[in-house]
Amino acid sequence: MTPSESGAHPRFAEALEELGLGELHAQIRRFPDATRTAAEAAAAIGCELSQICKSLIFAADGTPVLVLMDGASRVDLELVRRELGVEKVTRAKVDVVRETTGYAIGGVPPFGHRTKTRVLADRSLLDHDTVWAAAGTPYTVFPMEPKTLIAHAGATLVDVREQNP
After folding, report:
1. Regarding beta strands 29-30 and 140-144, do their DSSP bridges make them parallel or antiparallel, or are they unpaired?
2. What's the whole-number mean pLDDT along residues 106-117?
3. Residue 9 to residues 53, 78, 79, 88, Cα–Cα distance (Å)
4. Has this prediction a pTM greater than 0.90?
5. Residue 165 has what pLDDT?
């Protein structure tokens, strides 16, 4: 399967080739309906919600940072703030997400972004043999072993998951 046939975003398809991951094109799954949320993606794939790898952009003292989080959990902004040693962490605005990554919210992959950003990956992703992440569009996802995904994203492994009381 060629990169264009996989349905992946062209920038993401190019990133796969650059990383020597061209074989992943054949594993990318495209859905007729958008899978913008982790719940929509899990339902379409037929996997557990926690097997979805969300790629979330935050602003840490105004600087974009990517947090990779399992689909069943929420990011604890205070833990991210402490991890980064910054004053304030907020959700990035839509235009900042697109400007930083080159992708729209709901389709941001864990790597292959327009600009290099700091990446944090929550340890909860390691609870699975395979996780699914966006392939650059709200309609496409790909599977990958979590340690491999974290390595390709250049992520630091952290504990930034919101703990339920």
Report:
1. antiparallel
2. 94
3. 17, 33, 32, 32
4. yes
5. 58
CA 163 vs CA 18, 147, 160: distances in Å: 37, 23, 9
* Distance (Å, whole) CA 137 – CA 126: 24
Q: Within 13 Å, how many C-alpha atoms sit on residue 63's CB side?
A: 11
Residue pair 102/122 in contact by the 8 Å Cβ criterion: no
Q: What confidence tens digit (pLDDT) does each residue in 44-76 have?
A: 999 999 999 999 999 999 999 999 999 999 999
Q: Residues 3-31, buried b or exposed e (16+ Cβ, 10 A)?
A: beebbbbeebbebbeeeebeebbeebbeb
102 conformational bin, left if phi > 0, alpha if psi -120 to 50, beta if neither: left
The answer to whether 143 and 153 have CB atoms below 8 angstroms apart is no
Name the band, by pLDDT with cuts 50, 70 and 90, for residue 37: confident
Query: Which residue do the tokens 């309609």 mark?
Result: 139
The token pair at 51 is: 């097997």
Q: What is residue 77's three-state secondary structure?
A: helix
